[in-house]
Structures are given as structure tokens and as C-alpha cells.
Amino acid sequence: MSSDSAEPPVRIPIDTSSRRWSEGYKEKAIRKTMENPWVPLGTLVTAGALVMAAVRLRQGDSRKFQVWLRFRVAFQAFTIFAILGGLYKYGQGTSRRIRELWSK
After folding, report:
1. Where are the bilayer-spanning segments (predicted)?
2. In the chain, how many domains are there?
3. Which domain holds residue 71?
């Protein structure tokens, strides 16, 4: 395939005055948590279930160990769906912002 027939990449205008280019790590973490609070919550309960499973394993309670591992899997699935939902929501807003920038 020759490079002459390739189309140039699409240029997407970037609004450099946006706060996203000037915010620090802490501000970004707070903003992301406010945008989608389910992801940090899901991460915390997943980690909590994993810790509880480790505690039950150390105690030798295999039945409750298995229960906590199942909780961990359920919480992990919840977290993944929260991430996917946030990506879908972000994609909707991004396409709208791109159309607005192109119309200027």
C-alpha cells in the first residue's frame, strides 16, 4: 500500500484554556471522583472484600473465604460496569464538545 493514497489524520482542536491542562493530580482526582463516584466506591469495596477474604483464609475458615471471594468478583464486575458507564457518558460529552469546537 502506498503512502500517497493514505488520508491525513483528522485534527481535533484542543481547547488549551480548559482547566484540564492546568490542574494538578489532587484536583484531577477530585474532579474524576465527582464525575463518576461509583468507580472509587467500587474499588474500595472490592479491596475490602479481598482483605476480608485474606483474613478468613488466615483464620482457616474456608467457607467464608469462598463467600468473600465471590463478593470480590461481584464488586469487581460492578466496578467494571461503572467504568464502562463513565466511558460511555464521557464519550457522549466529548463528541458534543468536538462538534461545538468544529462549528466555531
Report:
1. 38-57, 69-88
2. 1
3. 37-103
